[in-house]
């Protein structure tokens, strides 16, 4: 028998958990991809390695994933609206699985880069898709916690591959990571399609069945479903692309549509916010740390430090903080969590910069390993609790249904490009200007992003996707209520709605 709390069944929550798990396991495999370079590159430096690499080739192995993300973004953006969420989710599994097996077969640098490139394409495809799937198919009250599983899963993947790297060869590591991807494939097969996408395609009856199967049926869920239907009908009436038109006319209409759409605040504001959040996320250094963990530990803590042990220890801290972030996401406002963690990140950046500068120039009154370790621990905590969890949570909440695929695809380009820039340039900047100035540069970029985000990003906690969409359109709560079915309105409310529509 299903457990109940009053009249509320836990079954819908369990179904949402299963859905989120399929996305989370897939993202865990991508976390393994990110952390794999920290295991692969030190192994390739050994004299007995069959594949010898230069410093430039090392940076390409680590950063090519970010470059490939861009291609994955372009592939998935149109497919999300045409194929649906489930088919696209299945498609994301193929490149990363191929990449793991290709790593086991190649014997040169070009082969390694090709395998990593394929995995990056898969990551680029899942980037906007994963958050959209969770955001569309989970209850607003639990959506923040479910969306936090994106960053939590990345953390688990990085920890998994780093831990394996301490005991197994990189080839064995790749083989074991491939089983995570295969597990995600099995979970995705049993997922339903997104009700939002079904409704957008006119399959309202099918969308209704899946919506209430996932959410349960009560007055609150019925109201949200009715709002989705009403918004979709308005959108279909205002659609500028007629399916019966010839291809040339469709293309022309599409560019006219794009030009008109780009001036709408509900389109360009979410994209701008996400562009800044993703830029801040990458230059905060979470993927830089994952890719060059042993090198950073040796430079900050000292060459005598046990880098492999500390790397795994930091991954464990990251996992604990990610679990804490799930709780904080349910209790704190999004803005509070983002700006408090951002401030700690910038301060720890500056602290590490000053410490390394003082150590390199013999300005420190004492040299104790605990000082850099505490600074790195604070830095990792700030990254995990807010900076790495908020962008993925917001990305699943902030885009209107009409522009969800297009807006998500465009904005995630910032994640892809800045992944490549931050990871590729980090070793170059260290060699040219030193670690202290590199940290100051990255801290400056994070600060600039936070300042602009402060004035642009709305609070999204505990708000439905339709309410968030209406806030970008400039619609008040009265407008939102007017769009609801008339049967729930009093005569006075109907008169107010009529006057509002007229004026």
Describe this protein's structure.
By secondary structure, this protein is mainly α. Helix content is 79%, strand content 1%. It is built from 21 helices and two strands. The chain has a two-stranded antiparallel ribbon with strand order 1-2. β1 and β2 form a beta hairpin. α2 packs parallel to α4. It starts with a strand and ends with a helix. The N terminus and C terminus are likely disordered.
Give the strand order of the largest sheet, numbering strands 1, 2, ... along the chain. Answer: 1-2
Task: Please count the helical segments.
Answer: 21
What structural class do helix, strand and pairing data support?
Answer: mainly alpha
Global morphology: globular
The termini sit apart by: 54 Å
User: Helical amount among residues, as a percent range?
Assistant: over 70%
Give start-end ranges of low-pLDDT stretches: 1-8, 485-503
Q: Roughly how many Å is the radius of gyration?
A: 24 Å
Would you count the extended β strands for me?
2
**Most strands sheet:** 2 strands, antiparallel
Mean pLDDT: 81
Tell me the fraction of residues in β-strands, as a range: under 5%
Give the topology string: H per helix, E per strand: EEHHHHHHHHHHHHHHHHHHHHH
